[in-house]
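Crash report, auto-generated. Payload:
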Amino acid sequence: MPTVRIPTQLRTLTGGEGTTTVEGSTVSEVLKALDAAHPGFAERLYDESGSLRRFVNVFVADEDVRFLDGLATPVPADATVSIVPAVAGG
Amino acid sequence: MTFVTGLTCRECGRGYPAEALHVCDFCFGPLEVAYDLDAVRASISREVVEAGPRTIWRWAPLLPSTPPGAVDLGAGGTPLIRAERLAAELGLGELWVKDDTRNPTGSFKDRVVSVGLAKARELGFKVAACASTGNLANSVAAHAARAGMRSIVFIPSDLEPAKITTTAIYGGTLVAVRGSYDDVNRLCAELTSEQPTWAFVNVNVRTYYAEGSKTLAFEVAQQLGWQAPDHVVVPVASGSQLCKIDKGFRQLAQVGLILEHPVRVSGAQAEGCSPVATAFSHGWDTFKPQRPATIAKSLAIGNPADGTYALDAVRRSGGALASVTDDEVVEGIRLLARTEGIFAETAGGVTIATLAKLAAAGVVRSDERVVAYVTGHGLKTVDAVSPVVGPTATIDPTMEAFAEAVDFQEA
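Recovered output after restart:
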C-alpha cells in the first residue's frame, strides 16, 4: 500500500501521525481512501469545485503531480505520496 | 512593542495569533501579518523615522518584530541613484536605481532575514534554516553567525560556486541537494513538519520574514522626498518581493507618511523561468509551474509561492510582466555597469533587460518617475559575465607594445 506523508497542519486528522498507509492506485484514489480512513481530509484538500486547493501541492515519489497527470497520476504500491503546503520559498 | 494584531489568511480570512505559523490550518492559504495601522499612524512621523537608525529598523512600527540588536548586520539604508545615462540609453525620463547590492551580504535578502530571525528569536527558535537559491543562503548563514544561532542551509548543488563559498565561510551546516530549487523547497517544506524547532525563514517563519521587503518601498518613498514613484520594476522569483513593495507603498499612505499615489508595479523574469510572466501574457488567472533553465539562478523558482498574488498586484496596479533571454540578461548587467557604475548579479540583469524591453514597448513611459530594483551584487555571479568581458589587451611592459595594442581615444 502507498504511504502518505501528512504535514503538521493536517495531523489533527491522523491523531498526530506524520505518515499513514492507504489503498489506491491513483492520487485521486489515495486521497479518497485517506478521507475514508480519517474523515475531514477531503474538505481540507479540495475546494468547492472539487479541485485541489491552490495552496495544496501533492507529490508522488517526490515529483509534483502537476508535472505528471494531476489527480489521475498513477501511484505504485510502494510509492510515497506527500501532501505539502505550497507556501514556501523565495 | 509592535503594532501587530495577529495573522490573517489571505485566502479564507481566518485569523490566528502572531505565533510560529505560516499557512492557514484550514485551507493552506498564506498568512499575512495584520497591524493596527491607526495606532501606527498616531505614533509615527517623518521626523521619528528620520531620527531612527540608518537601517531597516527605522521602520520598526511597520515590521512584525522589534529592533533586535543581535540579529542585525545593518541591512537596508541603501542608495537610490538617479540613472541619467541609463535613462538616456533607454529613452526614459526620470529613472532611479535602488542599489540594493549594498547590503551586508550583497543582496536584499538581508532585509528579510534580519526581520525573520529577529522574530524567530522572539518565538524561541535556536536554529536558523532556509531553502535558498544562494542570496538567502549567504544572508541566513551570516546573520546566524552574528546572532550566535546555529544554521542549516539547503541549496541546489548546481549553484554558482561563489554563492556556495560565500555561504560556507560563515561556518554553519550547508547541505547541497541534487535537484532544482523547487526540489530543495519541497524538501524543506516537508522537513518543517519534522523539525518544528528549526526556524526555516522562508517556510515556517515566512509570514514575518517576507514583511522585511516592504522596506524596499519605504526607503524609496523617503529617498524621493516622501513621495511614491509612478512605476517600479521588480524582479520576480517567488513573487513575494513584488507583493511586499506594492503593499509597502500603500501602507505608507495608510499611516499618513506619504500622500496616496498609484504606483504601477511591473515584474521581470528570465525566459528560462517565467511562470508568472507567461501567465500574464496569456491572460491566465494563475501560473503553471515550470522547470527552470536560466543563468538567473536567484530567480529560478518554477513554482512561485506568491506567483498568483504577484500577477494580481501587477494587473491591479496597471503594470506588466515580461521575460528576457539569458543573452539579454548578460547585456542588462553590462548596460547597468557601463552606464551607472553598478555591478549587478544576474537578477539585476533580468530587471534592467526587462526595463529596456518594457520601455521599448512603451509600457514604461518617459513621462513617469521610474524606479528599478537591483537587488544583488555582481560578484556573486561573475561566471555569468566572465566569458564576455576581459582585458582590452595583454601586452609586454613597453611603450611600443602599448602604442601598438591600444588605440585609446580620450573623447
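Post-recovery validation: Chain A has a mean pLDDT of 95.
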